[in-house]
Amino acid sequence: MKFTLGFFLLVLCVLGRRAVVHGDEGMWLYSNPPKKLLKEKYGFDKPEAWYEHVQKSSVRFNSGGSGSFVSEDGLVMTNHHVGAGDLQKVSDEKHNYLKDGFYAKTQADEIKCKGLELNVLQSMSDVTAKIEAAVTKDMSPLDAVKARNAVIEQIKAANSDKEKNIRADVVTLYAGGQYHLYIYKKYTDIRIVFAPEQQAAFFGGDPDNFEYPRYDLDMTFFRVYENDKPIKCQNYLKWSAAGSKEGELVFVSGHPGRTNRQNTVAELEYLRDTGYPFGLQRLNRMEVAMTSWSQRTEENARRAREDLFGVQNSRKARIGGLGGLLDPKLLGRKVDQEAQLKSFIAGSSDPMVKAAGPAFETIAKAEKKRAEILKENTFYEGGGAFSSHLFGIARTLLRAAEEKAKPAGTRLREYEDSSIKSLELGLFSDEEIYDDFEILTLTDSLTFYATTFGGNDEMVQKVLAGKSPRDRAYELISGSKLKDPAVRKKIYEGGKAAIDASTDPMIALAKLVDARSRAVRKVFETEVDEPKRQAYAAIAKARYAKDGASTYPDATFTLRLAFGTVKGYTQDGKKIPAFTDIGGLYKWSAEHKNKEPFDLPARWVERKDKLDLKTPFNFVCTADIIGGNSGSPVINQAGEVVGLIFDGNIQSLVLDFIFDEEVARAVSVDSRAMIEALNKVYDAQDVATELTTGKKPVK
User: Into how many domains does the chain fold?
Assistant: First the structure.
């Protein structure tokens, strides 16, 4: 693989640089894996073919998670909670696959997903020089945004192939210090093969979320099709019958969503004092509304289950992250690191390094503007005032009519040619939309919006149209025809004329707020995002000149390789073992008197005597992960599956900002527990056989 290092060539000429990575830290690019570190610390020395095989066996879910190919017949492994939205979309009042689980006994029984897209990374290349050349120093922030976006779209268009389902993304790394072109193979015919009951997958519920020890069978299996047939995989991960053991080196290949480890102190202080507290207000409101509604009927609970889980998970993650930001020791480490970098910049005679001097103040100014527009940006452009699938559809139709008429490279990025096919996949999905749940969420968001800006606010009054939030939500949801995919497609294909002729109340609402939404988006892009992008690019170059090429970029929901050892830890003076076992599941349930959320599914109770209770169930390792890694395979040095990442412990929530392997751990389902459960609890021997042999059984 040819990979140009651009400005890093300067760095490689600098001798004696101090490595900034400690322990098992790192979410490494496949184009720059830590081979030297792995060889020196663990004696691990594999050829490039090992890395390429693991890379092409790894899968990204457009719904926000990771996965991997685990058979030559296109079988994909991920978490139950990654696939939960897809299970819910194909469920109805008679079939609750999210709650009760699903098993396709034959290929014909595999259920096709609605609007799911999987991406497999094929290649990477550095396009930094071409993109940086498009932006000159004399450009205004607005012109810089336009110029950069235009060249990015040119690169993506030149490398995409809609007919062959080849997707091209330009990925921003090192906060703007580099730009890489990622080429993906895209799959859109995805079918569900197996999922356990949610109670088995999320045993312990919210109380155990982000905790350890754990006893969760958080797994789901899909199959990838092309031309109505399962694909044949040249690259897939083989299964380890032996699993892992204490102290063993393991790897995690997945798509961590976002970290903020290279953020300046000013940005961390914004998150601590403004961003996270406001976000928690929203999450707390949503959780209360959804929980109360879910408790009314079992059908309500089914309809809200996946959204409620997402809200609860986000709430707990934000609380953990905020706790880290409020820890003087953690922030003190960041202050010290930034002071060292500033001192290095001030003492350097290199013009490239010196250019980073004003960058810290630029970012601080941008963060002040970000705080000023937070509510406006959240409620309008972020859609926080209009929590409704139907509003999202209406806005997409409205903007598509306007944006698609513009020349390529000048549109909002989500409507550029490189993104439009994925947008259409979701827009035309026949996923069911429930009026009662839509009214619930829209009522809550309209109420939060009105109380935030005040009932006398002119736009609030226009949005509510003389009605209470509840009555306005009912009017909008019950009056909209956008639940019908055929209606959506007709309006989409009709363009601006169809939008102008539409009397749909949701489209009318989208029209009402669109100018204000676009205005605050423009402010964010030109006064927050663009100044920060250029400032962080300058800081990234200075940091590389200081610390060398042993660092890695913040997570960007692109494929990364992490490593670590299977290892327990000590919490409050108590030793926490690396492994739990199936016997511990039954003990943990009994300790809680088998009451929700520690109650066991009926088949687990009935088949206890068939199981080997000493089988390892969950385990922890020191690999560096974050949200987005859910569904990532854990593999041994031979590249065999030994586990499946599904969570981190509560101490890992600070990894968004700084790495610490003393007690932070990644939590996985053990490969041995998966096979034991498939064979002895679910009678899914065909899936177990496919995993252990790599081939779908022939019948």
Answer: 2
